[in-house]
Amino acid sequence: MAESNDIASIYTDCVDDMYTYALYLGFQEHNIVDAIQDVFISLCEKQKDLTNISNIKFYLLKSLRNRLVDIAKQEGKHVSFSPIIEVELTIAETYDHTEKQLIQLEEENEIKRKIQTMLASLSPRQQEIIYLHFIKGYNYKQVAELMDMPYGNVRKMVYKSFKLLRAKYGKHFMLLLIFSPILP
Amino acid sequence: MVDNSCYKTHSELLRDERYLLWRLVPEEHLDQYWEEKLFQYPDLCHEMNLADAYLKDILFTKRYIKQENKEQILQEIVRAIEQGEPQRNRKKKAVLLRCKIYGAVACVFVLTGLFLYRVLAPVEPDEQIVINQLEAKEIRLIYSEKTVLYEDNIDIQIDNKGKATIQSDNNPDKIEEIEIADNTLNTLVVPYGRRSKIELPDGTKAWLNSGSILQFPSTFSGDKREVMLSGEMYIEVKKQEVPFVVKTTDFSVKVLGTKFNVSAYEKQQQSVVLVEGSVGVRSDHVEETCMLSPNEIALLDTVSASFRKEKTDALEYISWVKGYIVLHKTPLINVMNYLERYYNVDFEYIETPRIQSMTCDGKLYLSESFDNVMRAIGILTDTEYSKENNSIYIYNK
After folding, report:
1. Which chain B residues are Cβ-neighbours of A3 within 8 angstroms?
2. CATH: 3.40.630.30, 3.55.50.30, 3.40.190.10, 3.30.390.50. Which one for B323-396?
3. How far, in Å, CA of B157 to CA of B277, rounded?
């Protein structure tokens, strides 16, 4: 029983992060439920000793991603990473509300719209990199491993995103560019 | 550096593309720029943390798996491990799991049906007339057997000589004055999709939510100040020696001077939430008075007709005054019921079992445009809708 207790606490710690990632990857609820279940069961089958896996959440996210990609192939469906653009209703992880009230409502909406359109101008993979790096805090090496891509490609994609966003939104950058010698 | 932008708040940071790019697609020369800024203004660190939290929240909000799924999956996993179950049986189990979920949803349907049947049955004729007025488009003020209709949301102020000043929300220059006779009981009917504010002769301020009716006297006299409410109201009672009483069909709230929200809609959980001060809440059928402290909610149990007290965040319950509702692990179906009442529509769900089982967190803006709200709901639930008069049909994409 000790083993299943361990798996239960790992499960409780990780399930919401796995669910969130899968939703943003563009999967339907029932596929996600199946995939999470599969990932945990095969984890237990393969790995009797869970303490051998150093970064368990990372491992789980990677396995989940692989499993979901398989499911997508089986069903012949095309799914792509996309954040849910929520115009009015957010399904939110609540952080301190009193701080939030500092930003007035209309202003909040304006900022929100801008950031969301910025993100929407990027490709699904570019968005996924931002999700894994900025939100989940993985470094680019880990991001590359998770997304099954060579490290160099991840760096290239980040640089491409940067150039694209700068061209679209970077009116403030002109000065920065002139005075910054390291830029191409 | 020529640039000498100075940032004081996180919203200033969020409005600067350089900040957004630095966070989202970090590049070396941006590091340099922001490190210099941080060196110049060390306090900026705190604002950066706030800006980051906000940015993460709006870009990729964390979502939570449904509690029932969460438990089911774990049970399946544990069972599979214990039985050393071979891989190929799994698919079957997943299907079984889904059947169980649908079963649970069906149960919810049946229970809701029974509940609605029970509460909907008796409606007295008089009440019926007023309830019909809730279907109207205009806010109406009924006084001394006269009725005035207002197309805009209005702000009413009644002074202690019985003079009412009525100001339109959309057009603040449009002010109207009417005389209300002494010692009459007046009625303010706020139909679906509308809100209204009223200041009573004693200086008490009340905000009425969509689909609410308030009855109030032209002047308060005697040993208590009493108003009658059906629907929802946030009220800031002016402190006086004479107690203030809010009566609803099933209970009454007695106070001296406080701020609180009363929700007494039919078909909904009835409750009282205290923001400031102290109130006593008493069901009409039970002797006991339930005393509330700030940030406590009293929930009316319709079966035992008594109140149950819980800790809560009172601000969540009065956000509608500002035009949005705050949701915290709220079942989506409750939100849909809220929207039905708020915009006076009927939702028809066409084979969309997900809606019955989702929950949501965050803010829902009660936009003046019903379509805006429905667009958001559509994105969240993967559904589309079509309109036919007051009926809204919701179906899967």
Report:
1. 81
2. 3.55.50.30
3. 24
